Structure formats: C-alpha cells, structure tokens
Amino acid sequence: QFLKQLGIHPDWQFVDVYGMEPELLSMVPRPVCAVLLLFPITEKYETFRTEEEERIKAKGQDVKSSVYFMKQTINNACGTIGLIHAIANNRDKMNFETNSSLKKFLEDSLSMTPEERAKYLETYEAIRVTHESSAHEGQTEAPSIDEKVDLHFIALVNVGGHLYELDGRKPFPINHGETSDDSFLEDAIQVCKKFMERDPEELRFNAIALSAA
User: Fold this and answer.
1) Binning pLDDT at 50, 70 and 90, where does residue 46 land?
2) pLDDT of res. 104
3) Do the Cβ atoms of 150 and 129 come closer than 8 Å?
4) Number of folded domains that form the chain
5) CATH code of 5's domain
6) Are 17 and 209 within 8 A, CB to CB?
7) For a 10 Å CB count at each end of the chain, is N or C smaller?
8) 117 near 110, Cβ under 8 Å?
9) Predicted local confidence at residue 2, as pLDDT
10) Catalytic pick from 78, 85, 131, 192?
11) Is residue 152 flagged as an active site residue?
12) 192 is annotated as an active-site residue
C-alpha cells in the first residue's frame, strides 16, 4: 500500500520471510532486490555498532559511489528510510508513475550528501503524509514521532555485486562482501543471522523481501 501511494507500479512488492531455513527461503518469490530487517536495539547491539564503526574508520572499506545512502534525523522514521534505501538502490528496476512523489524525491536528492538528503526528507511533505497515513492503516497503532522505540529497520541491497547494509543511524554504508542477483536473498539472510547471533536471547527479529510480483 505504501509503495502504491508513493507512485510505484506493483510489479515489485514486499513479502514476509517466514524463516531463514532453505525450504522457507524457497517460498520467497524471485528475484529479490532488497531485504528489510527489523531488529531490537539492545545494549549488546549498541556495543557492537560502536566497535564496528571504529574498526571501519581505522581499516577503511570499499563503498561504490553509486550507493544511495541517507542519514536518519526524523525519530521513528526508520521504516520509511529503509524503504527509500531499498527503492533508491534499485531505481533502474522500478516503474514509477509520472507524478510519483518518491521518484521526484530521488531525482532531487541524487546529488546531495547523506546529511542533505535527511534534511530534505524533513521538509518533504508528500512522503511524510504518506508515511503517516500508511502507519495509521496498520493493525497495530504506530508510535508517535517522539516516542522512544527500541526496534529499528535497516535495508540490505546489492549494488554493483556487493551487499550493503544501509542504516540511517550509522555514519556510512557497511559493505558485507560480494553477492549476485541469484544469491542475494541467501547472502542477505546470512547478514540477518549475524544480527540474531549477537543477541541470542532476543526474539524480535523480522525480515521482509522486496520481490518481483
């Protein structure tokens, strides 16, 4: 529904990933061009995030200039940021309506820095209104913009044969190594499993895949 309201033709849709075993992954329609992971922000995760950032800053990493990445400055908007990351890095595969608000946002923001994109989203009424109306259509009441929420969305995408984790709370994309169109879902799920292994007592993990309809 959210994609439709943003002016994207329904030839791609988000589907639930019911489990991470091969037989359950085989139920996900292919091809898959992005995976969104919902996970809890815990003390263990925050410790890991700080260490990961310091390690990458010290060692460096290869991030292609074609990766579209934006920071998150709006509270409780990680789902919208994740969706923008998923679509923006697959925009060549998407069919947009001519008056698509998301298409205009992406075209306007392509030359911006990750921080400028975040600022632009703050003032971009069309996406904010769509986000709010979609949130109210869900089965559970959406948290208010100021409420503290300890669940967070990130996007996993394939750009130029590399699997990137895009998280607006982080200073940069995370390169998780090589992938391909054929192996992308399995490779993305391996990254999701690492999140789960860092917090073995936690059960609040959920993945959805952007699949061809």
Assistant:
1) very high
2) 96
3) no
4) 1
5) 3.40.532.10
6) yes
7) C
8) no
9) 82
10) 78
11) yes
12) no
